């Protein structure tokens, strides 16, 4: 029972995966690329249309037709592609709109544009102002078509209304944000060229250009109506965008009684259409072919897969808020650029060797931040709304810099702590020298200070400098305090040792006498005539100390380090001399020795 259950589950999963990875065999048909969600407020992608686009490896351009519902957009697209209604985009005759979302014709038109083979797709969009839809949904369709197309045909019947101008607010804002950001350089993102297409029964009277110019003329607003001000702003912007837009008129397509025979459009041939219409239609094809350019994003044309990725970003931005805005679009497109610039900043700062002085770290931060901001300025999308992404990048850099400052403090504290501990250990070792030497202590003291000053860097240096001053001062005071007493005791011990050496080992009477003199001076004379404090300030003591320091520690010899090896060597030499040297060489001392010749040369000494 369990095995059959799992077999069923696996079978369902395989069928599901197989259905999700379908392959289209016939592309000679329209496919949806964007569909409305169940609530008909937001958009979602359709994989059929995306597969038709993503298979293209050449640069892609898109021609989108927008306008009110039931205005002949689908029929116009079929005419531009020389397709009949039965094989091209569906043409409806009912009151409700035929096209839902945005559809694409599966086989692109191949054109040679500026020497580059380009695949041109035609997009049919859902008409706005239809029944059962929200204005927000229309805005999303309009915005998506504006962003993804290279040529945007604004299909209007008869004339240009104020409501038609209002709908261009997003296109205007988009153009202001993206188009022509820096002259002479690759634009970050180039919106579609706007083509006003007016379809009317009679071509007499005003030309379409005159009609559009008149519609875009500033309207007086003596009453201070906000709506009129908003439309006037759009009019002003569209007038400035004149080099990015054009106008074209197209007569109605039937010879007689067009309102009666529109239901039979799909059955008509070119011979049944108005010759003027056929002529203007061919001129429209040539016009579209002349102004269309491959879709450019950051100076790079997009192939099929890149175009699909571009479309996904657009849809993510337009579905982000309750109302589609250029700001959300700019933010989504700048997200990757912000990450790239932040990565650049991280790479530059990552090359630093921490710890380092605070000012050097600040200088490196300023240089890296300037380089990252410069890269963002060259790559970013948008003008006004790019400030949000700019602030985001600045905040991200500050956060990274904050972490780097903390890391610098940590590494600085570790380094200075290690140097401080090393100096403290060295001072402790100098406190317990076998042979006390002020010169050696001062040399170690200066070496510690010098190594700490050179190697301890970063923000923790000031704090550890104060600790070093206290520790070194305390060590110096303690050494000086014990130095004289240790030296005095060592000299007393040394004098007794030399008495023993001069009397019993080498039997040199002058060494014994000198040792006795030193011992008596230290233990008798000083105690009878000087106090311990006055002794340390006496010139005789200073002479003894100077002589001691010269012997114990000098550039040639560090007696504290070599005392034991030297002592052992001397002891061995004296032992050798006493046992073998004197009998072998029969040498005579120039100075008096403990020796008597009264009872013969070999008579032992008697004390």
From TrEMBL:
Domain GB1/RHD3-type G positions: 57-177
Annotated signal peptide:
1-23
Gene Ontology terms for molecular function: GTP binding; GTPase activity
Q: Which SUPFAM superfamilies match?
A: Interferon-induced guanylate-binding protein 1 (GBP1), C-terminal domain, P-loop containing nucleoside triphosphate hydrolases
The record's section on PANTHER family has: GUANYLATE BINDING PROTEIN
| Similarity section | Belongs to the TRAFAC class dynamin-like GTPase superfamily. GB1/RHD3 GTPase family.
Q: What is this protein called?
A: Guanylate-binding protein 5 isoform X1
Originating species: Gossypium hirsutum (Upland cotton)
List the lineage, top down: Eukaryota, Viridiplantae, Streptophyta, Embryophyta, Tracheophyta
